[in-house]
Write a structure and sequence with these properties.
With about 450 residues, the chain is mainly alpha-helical. It is built from 17 helices and eight strands. β4 and β5 form a beta hairpin. The radius of gyration is 23 Å and the shape is globular. About 20% of the residues have low confidence. It binds zinc ion. Zinc ion binds next to β2 and α4.
Length: about 450
């Protein structure tokens, strides 16, 4: 299946995100102790490089990155080793010139889409499928494996959306798959005959623009000697639901565990868009979601049955999403869209002089030195996932998680500020006041609690 279609819901979501129609990017939720235990009991390994998890060598990867509008839902999460996770981040930063990525939109929309598709397909179809996006894949492979073949392959990885609850077992679609025994190194000269190189070209001729070349850092000019022969020996799957073609070489299909109504709502909110989508297309998103999970069946009916819904998709959406969606009919076709209530750009709480807000007044003697703008960029990127407002006291943990996700040592907010030369005598509020006057809002509640939020800014 054409990745543009296969991942159309992610791409739409990203577009809405960048256009500010849906700025709700929930903060990541940490893995629980019992889920961690499950990983270790199963001796789980990384779905990309096969490294066994231990201690803190792994974390949660958002397959479609939150910084590009990805949802914090189970279907968008997978446990991955930190090295792979960090290299995926570096690949994104390098290719999309960020964070913040809002500055790369819309000029780099083509590259953003390619990155998202690469990020998704390397999880759904195995690492090697990333070769479909050679400039991205090559950068990742160089960063992560110094351009070599991965030394190991996953055998006990958990796939997308794994709940890691009691009954779960490693269920990654490519555990011990044939690619585990097939070297990625150049092979037979017959490879070009079956390599999808020409298809790739045709495909990208259709979807990509010459602007692609301005992917400055990806080094298109660099020779990539092995790419042709390192390509998949089998063409990418092309069946409508993206799964049947794998029958002859894939692992056994997985019977998915029952899911809750909340899961259903969360999933639907992640794939629905402000623009009406034909109901059948929504069904196809569900099918490709199931295919990505290597589910036993990839039909909408099966998906609904996981939630205990006996009736059709429309009925389930109406029943469980209610006023959050709008279902319309036109020329005999059903369309479903997110209702505007879910799309309202988050606006900061209304502050009036009579509210509890007390603006900090800075004594003139306290100096805040000029800092590199990366300081602000990193803090804003770290906060890009917050919903509404958060307590200022939690900013350090948000920042730490963000820094780790980009491969930097975790630092508290003030430590981070210090590393940019801001004296530790400045309070967090003073730092926000001085360095983020137009981007971070804050208010006090009582004497000790401060709430902060990202101000919604106009696209430049
Ligand atoms: Zn890894």
């Amino acid at each position: 299946m054409d990745p543009l279609q296969r991942y159309s819901s992610s791409l739409k979501r990203a577009k809405s995100f960048f256009e500010g129609k849906n700025t709700k990017t929930p903060k990541g939720t940490p893995i629980t102790q019992s889920q961690l235990l499950k990983l270790y009991q199963n001796r789980a390994d990384c779905p990309i490089c096969g490294t066994e998890f231990s201690g803190t060598n792994h974390n949660t990867e958002h397959i479609h990155p939150r910084a590009l509008g990805g949802a914090n839902v189970a279907s968008n999460k997978i446990q991955m080793c930190k090295l792979c996770n960090n290299c995926r981040n570096m690949t994104m930063q390098h290719g999309l010139i960020g964070p913040p990525y809002s500055k790369s939109y819309p000029q780099m929309w083509e590259q953003i889409q390619r990155f998202i598709m690469w990020a998704e397909i390397t999880v759904d179809d195995g690492l090697q499928a990333g070769e479909m996006f050679p400039e991205i894949h090559q950068f990742f492979m160089d960063e992560r494996f110094a351009g070599q073949s991965p030394p190991k392959h996953p055998t006990r990885a958990f796939g997308r959306a794994s709940t890691l609850d009691a009954a779960t077992v490693p269920n990654y679609a490519h555990n011990g798959s044939p690619r585990a025994t097939t070297p990625l190194t150049p092979t037979a000269p017959s490879a070009p005959a079956t390599t999808p190189a020409s298809e790739k070209k045709g495909f990208w001729q259709r979807v990509a623009t010459p602007v692609l070349d301005f992917l400055t850092g990806y080094g298109r000019e660099q020779p990539v000697p092995d790419r042709q022969t390192r390509g998949r020996k089998k063409p990418l799957r092309s069946t409508p639901n993206g799964s049947e073609a794998a029958l002859e070489d894939g692992p056994p299909k997985v019977e998915l565990e029952p899911r809750s109504t909340d899961d259903f709502v969360e999933f639907m909110l992640s794939i629905l868009t402000p623009e009406p989508q034909e109901l059948s297309l929504v069904g196809r998103s569900i099918e490709s979601h199931l295919a990505g999970l290597n589910a036993k069946f990839t039909t909408t009916t099966y998906f609904l049955s996981l939630h205990g819904y006996p009736r059709g998709l429309k009925k389930a959406i109406q029943t469980h999403l209610g006023h959050r969606v709008v279902i319309t009919e036109n020329a005999g076709k059903q369309y479903v869209a997110l209702a505007s209530g879910d799309l309202v750009v988050e606006t900061p709480p209304l502050i009036t002089p009579t509210s509890s807000l007390i603006y900090e007044t800075k004594p003139p003697t306290k100096k805040c030195p000029a800092v590199d703008s990366m300081f602000q960029q990193h803090v804003l990127a770290a906060l890009s996932g917050i919903e509404n407002e958060i307590k200022l006291s939690t900013i350090s943990s948000v920042l730490e998680e963000y820094l780790e996700s980009i491969g930097e040592p975790g630092k508290s907010f003030k430590q981070f500020a210090k590393s940019y030369g801001i004296p530790t005598t400045r309070t967090a509020v003073e730092i926000i006041d001085h360095y983020f006057p137009n981007t971070i809002g804050y208010r006090r509640e009582g004497k000790t609690v401060v709430h902060i939020w990202l101000k919604v800014t106009e696209e430049e």
